[in-house]
Design goal:
Layout (H helix, E strand, L loop, with lengths): L3 E5 L4 H16 L3 E6 L5 H7 L4 E3 L10 H25 L3 E4 L5 H10 L4 E5 L6 H6 L5 E4 L13 E3 L6 H4 L9 E6 L6 H16 L4 E6 L5 H9 L4 E5 L5 H6 L3 E4 L3 H10 L2 E4 L9 H11 L4 E2 L7 H12 L2 H11 L7 H16 L1
Parallel strand pairs: 1-2, 1-4, 2-3, 4-5, 5-6, 6-7, 8-9, 8-11, 9-10, 11-12, 12-13
């Protein structure tokens, strides 16, 4: 029996890609879908490209932002809630699924006001600001870490892992003798990783290290980094954004990345050896906690943001490049953090609540 669902979440790829993984399952099962996002977030491009209908509202952040932005977002919030309510009333969904991000708050509030069942995904060990605020109203919270259960009412949460696109789970062992390093700071890039990458180029060149570098920089610093890399005499490519990250993983020996839930989940799903550099300003230091969980299991290496520079990046990569056994161990152990059925379970929960609420 087909149902109708609203999905929301945006601002970064870490919010959008998991929502798209769930959307793919729901669409395959014949359900009707619509996304709610902002025109400023990356969802405004990725969602339509994936073939889904989208409605836009204006929404800003309230947590860990400057006072000026807090004031603007607070003033804007009632308008955003009203706009979300209008979309929900028109579309009449059986349930709302939230992946978080600035846009999710008004949509979740609108769903609660309209008594539409709300399912949230909380991928981090410490739940985000919006999910903490709506915790007692959710039908079900789908979690990435057991520790997050404490923030939700008893019986309304389960650990499913973060939905990851199916193609990450079907990656084949890398072929070829060339050693490829993939650096990604997320869809917007990361200044620390951009700087460390640029500083590492002379070390790779001077030591004649045979490394192919693929670097996703984000749009802001792409032009200058691409220009400098072109004169570095190194092999590789500098790009602002990688839309097919699974294929990039498939060609890489080592991934250098932030430790957001999305990145960690994709690394686990793909069985990738990684060097994680947690964002030091992440709410409740959740990125360091995500990375530490992998490090404690011998499934990744971690370098703190303040310690990451070009020389350290070079040394970490060379250590792994010259120790194939350690590379293989990281790949094997990280798979214990993979949850291949997370998207399917999210779809099942949405169908379950729709059947009950009919």
């Amino acid at each position: 029996m087909p149902f109708s669902f609203v999905l929301t979440g945006g601002g970064t790829g870490g919010h959008v890609f998991p929502a798209l993984a769930v959307a793919r399952i729901l669409r395959e099962r014949g359900h009707r879908l619509i996304f709610i996002g902002t025109r400023e977030g990356i969802e405004s491009r990725l969602v339509p490209e994936a073939g889904y209908e989208m409605e836009f509202i204006r929404s800003g952040g309230l947590n860990r932002v400057g006072l000026g932005k807090q004031v603007r977002s607070t003033i804007q919030l009632p308008v955003a809630i009203a706009a979300a309510r209008q979309v929900l009333r028109r579309f009449r969904p059986n349930a709302v699924f939230s992946m978080g991000g600035f846009v999710a708050g008004p949509v979740m509030i609108a769903a609660i006001l309209l008594r539409i069942p709300l399912i949230v995904m909380e991928p981090n060990a410490v739940p985000g600001f919006a999910n903490r605020k709506v915790a007692r109203h959710v039908y079900r919270a789908l979690l990435g870490f057991e520790a997050a259960r404490a923030c939700f009412p008893p019986g309304r949460s389960e650990v499913t892992g973060l939905p990851v696109r199916a193609e990450f789970f079907s990656l084949q062992p890398k072929k070829g003798s060339d050693f490829t390093l993939l650096i990604t700071g997320g869809s917007r890039g990361a200044r620390t990783l951009n700087r460390a990458s640029r500083e590492s180029w002379p070390f790779f060149r001077e030591r004649l290290a045979d490394v192919h570098i693929i670097h996703q920089t984000g749009a802001a610093e792409h032009e200058i980094l691409a220009r400098e890399f072109a004169s570095s005499n190194l092999q590789g490519e500098i790009v602002p954004f990688i839309s097919d990250m699974a294929s990039a993983f498939n060609s890489a020996d080592v991934v250098v990345a932030r430790a957001g839930a999305g990145s960690v989940s994709e690394i686990a799903a793909g069985g990738m050896a990684s060097i994680l550099v947690p964002l030091p300003f992440a709410a409740d230091d959740h990125q360091r906690k995500n990375a530490q969980a992998l490090v404690d299991a011998g499934a990744a290496r971690m370098v703190l943001d303040a310690e990451m520079d070009g020389e350290r990046l070079f040394r970490e990569v060379e250590l792994l490049r010259n120790r194939p056994d350690e590379l293989a161990t990281l790949r094997e152990r990280v798979r214990q953090f993979a949850h291949p059925a997370a998207a399917e379970r999210a779809a099942e929960v949405l169908e379950e609540v729709s059947t009950i609420s009919r």
